[in-house]
Write a structure and sequence with these properties.
The chain is an all-alpha fold. The protein has three helices and no strands. It has one domain.
Length: 94
Amino acid sequence: MSDADVPTEPAAAEATGVAAIEERATTVRDEQVQRAVATLDARGDVTPEKRAAVERLATRLTARLTAPAERALRQTGSGDDEVARVALALFGED
C-alpha cells in the first residue's frame, strides 16, 4: 500500500491500518500453521489434538504480536496518519 492509498481521515486511516494488520497477520498465521501441521503429518505425528494445539498457539501469538500496533492505531485520533503509514509498512505484504 502506498502513501497515496492511506486515507487522510483519522478514522479511515485507523480502520485501514487495523484491517491491513489483521489481514497480513491472518495470512502469515495460516501459512505457518499449515506448514507446521504438514511437518507433523509427514512424520506421522499429527493428531486432531496436536493440530488444535498448533492452531491455538498460532492464534494467541498472532494476537499478542499485533495487539500493540492495532492499539496504537485505535488510539490515534489526532489526524496524524503517520502511525497508519508505519503500521502498514511494518505489516505490509512481503
